[in-house]
Write a structure and sequence with these properties.
three-stranded parallel beta sheet; mainly alpha
Amino acid sequence: MNRVVFDCMIYLQAAANATGSAGKCVDLAEDGKLDLYLSIAITAEVRDVLTQPKTRKKFSALTPEVVNRFLRRVSRFAHLVTTVPSVVSLPRDPADAKYLDLAIAANAMLL
């Protein structure tokens, strides 16, 4: 089975539109057709992005209840990797390194 790591935008798009392409990716993971991996740092970033005022302004459906329900849903089927070694350095966008680090730690085939 394919091990995957989704970036924050996939989670945002899936939470905002469950029937769109990103929502279908989350559905595939929930249905066990993909092994989705998450880290504590990525979970925190996703929560932060989904609850930012500018995000809520653009996606009014992302109420606190919707965000909490979405994150609880994902946490039921995603594999949480609690220790992710820092092996990648991305000077142009250091915030993205955590996704590559997780992909390496999880031996993910897709990012």
